Amino acid sequence: MSEKWVRQMLTAEFLSDAHLGSGSGGGGIDALVARDRHDRPVVWASHVEGVLRDAARRLHGDEKAGEFFGRAGGKQQRAVFTSLYAKDNPESHIWRSTAREAFDNRAPKDDTLRVIEYVPKGTKLVGEVELPASQLDTLKRLVQEVDALGGGRSTGAGRVKLLLSEVTSSSRKVGIPTGRLVLLLKNRDPLCVTATATPDNLIPSLSFVPGRTLLGAVAAWLIAEGDRATATLLTSGKVSVSDALPLPQAPSKLDGVEVLPAPLSLQSEKPKGAAGELPWWAQPPAATKRLDAWGAREKLKRPEDDLFVYRESASAPWTTYRPARRVRLRNGRPDPKQADASLFAIEQIVEETHFLAELHGSVEELKKLADKLAPVLEARRWLRAGRAGAPVEVAQLAWLNAPGAMKPGGTARLTLTSDLLVRDEHLRWRTALDADALKALLGEDVQLRELLQDSTMVHGFNGTSRLWRMPAAAIRRGSVFEISGAGVAKLAEHAGRHEWLGERTHEGFGRFRLDTPLPGVTSEVGSLPTVPNVAEEAIAKKTKEWFDAYGSLPKSGTGSDRRPSLSQWLDLASDLTRGDASALSSRLSPTTAGAKGWKHRDAEVVLKKLQAVQQQQRALHVRFFVRWLRAGSREKTKGAR
C-alpha cells in the first residue's frame, strides 16, 4: 500500500520590512527584490528550504536534516515546496546607507551610497508544500522555529510569521481511457531543463519539456511509489510520451489544439541597417514579418529555436510566440570545503507556463498507467521535472481518439515536430538527410524535392545512475522536407497510427506532420512585457547629453547653488516607478526647505526635459541619468586623488 501524502498551504506574513534578495541589479537600485513573472515579490522555494534546513540542523543535527531534506548526490528530498508568491504588488521601501570615513568619523565615504529595496511589513506571500503525512509533524515543528526570511535577518529585517494550513482542492475524474491521452501541464515554479551536459556558470534551459524528461518524471513518480512494473510500460516503449510544448495561454478545451516548433521555412526579414551613431539593435524595434522561405528570393533569417506556432482550433489562425524565460542568480559550493560560495546563473521557464503533451499506446496499457497514476491525473499530486525537480501539475486532461490519417496530395511538406534520431550504415548519428538517406528512412517510393534542415545535440540525464546519458546528434525539430511519390499516402497512414521515424520514438523523438502547404502565421504573440518602442541604448545616449549639460554632483553647495543630491534623484525615480502623478510637479514647485535644490536652473532643465518624455518612460530616463551622475562622481573623485 502506497504512503499517504498531504498538501499544506504555507503563508508568510512579514512583521518587518524584508529584502527578498535576487543579486545585484542596475538602473539606480543596488539590491533588487526578487519578483515573479507578474512583477510581484516572491520568496524562492530554494530559500525557504534552506532556512528550514538550517532549523532542522539546529534542532536535530545534520543526519536528521539529511533524512528530511535529502543529501547531495544521494537521497532526494521528498517534500516538494513551491515558492511563496504575493497576491498583489505592495509599494517598495527604499533604504539607503553609506560607509563612514573611519570608526570615529561619521562622515560618509565618497561613492559608497548603497540602495536596497524592501517589501513593507504586513506583506503576505503564499505557497504550497506536498509531503508524506508521516513527515507533517516534523515540518510543523520546523516552521515554528523560523522567525525571519530574506536578507539581513540578523539585523532585524524580514521577521516573519509562518503558518501551515490544509489545502482543500477538488479533484477531477480521470475518465474512460482511449489510446490517446492529452495532458495540459503547468509548472508551479520556474523550470530549468538543462540544454547541455557541460554547463558552466550559466546553465541554459530548453524552451520546452522534452518527451524523455516527461517520461522520466512520470516513471520516477511511479518508482517512488513502489510500482516499478507500471513504470516499465514507459521505459520499455509500450507507452510513448511526446514533447511537452509550451502554450501562450491555457486553452478552453484540449480537443483541436495544435502546437509545434516553428518550421525552418517560416523565416523573417533580417534587421535593416540604420544611419546614425546607434547600432541597429538599439533602434526602436519593428514588428516581425514572417515569410515563407520556399518562395522568397532575398536572404531571410531562420526562426529561433524557442519560437513556436500555435492555434486553438482548426478554424483559428496560427500565431507565433516564445515562452517567457528568465535568468536567476544563485550561490553554491560545488566543493563543501570551499570557503566562498560561487556565483552562477540558471535560465528558467517562468512559473505558470502551460505545456501540451500526449501519451500514446494501446487502450489496455494506458488504462493500467492511468489507474496507477490517478493521484497525478486527478491533480492530487505533483510531478517533479527538470533541474532540482520543479513541481508540475496536470491542469487538464482529455482522452481523445486518434486524429486520423492525413490526406496530403501528390506533393507534401514533411515537418519534424520533434528531433529525429537516425543512424547511417556505420551506426553514426546523422546530422543531415540527403535524398538517399531520406529514401532509406521513408521508403523507395518517396522522392525528395527540396529541404530546409538543421542539426542539434541531444543530452539527457539518468536519474537512477545519476549520470549524464551519452549525447546524440539529431535532425533538428522544425526541419522541412518537400516530398512526393506514392509513399506520401503511406507515410500519412503511419502518422495516423503514431508510427514515428528513427530511434527512441517512445521518448518523443521522430514525430512529424504532413501539410500542403505549411501552416501560415497571421499574428505574433509576445512573451514578456518589454519597453515599448524605446531602446535602452537610445535612452542612455539622450541622458548622457543631459548629464554633459548638468555636470556631476558637487560635494557641497548652499543657497541658490545647491542642487538635488543623488538620494533625491533616486527618490524621484522611485516616485515615477510607482506612478506618482505629482512626482514632477512637486519638484518644479517645491514647498519645503529640503526640496529647494530642485529650483536650481540645471535641475529645472532636466525636469522639463523629463516632462517632454512619454510618461511610462520617465522612470527609466531618471535611472540612466543617475548612472551618469554616479559615473561622473567617481571620475571627479579619482581626479582629486
Task: Summarize the model shown.
With 641 residues, the chain is α+β, with helices and mostly antiparallel strands. 24% of the residues lie in helices and 26% in strands. Helix 1 (45-69) crosses helix 2.
Question: Can you offer a commentary on this structure?
Answer:
Among the domains are: 5-166, no CATH class; 180-261 and 307-398, Alpha-Beta Plaits (2-Layer Sandwich); 536-640, no CATH class. The chain has 641 residues and is of the alpha+beta class. It contains 13 helices and 36 strands.
| Main sheet makeup | 6 strands, antiparallel
Tell me the total number of β-strands. 36
CATH hierarchy, class of the domain at 180-261 and 307-398? Alpha Beta
Weakly predicted, low-confidence segments: 24-28, 526-534
Q: What shape does the CA trace take?
A: globular
- Overall mean pLDDT stands at 84
- Please state the CA-atom Rg, rounded to the nearest Å: 29 Å
Structural class: alpha+beta
How much strand? 25-35%
Distance between the termini: 76 Å
Number of helices: 13
Helix content estimate: 10-25%
CATH architecture of the domain at 180-261 and 307-398: 2-Layer Sandwich
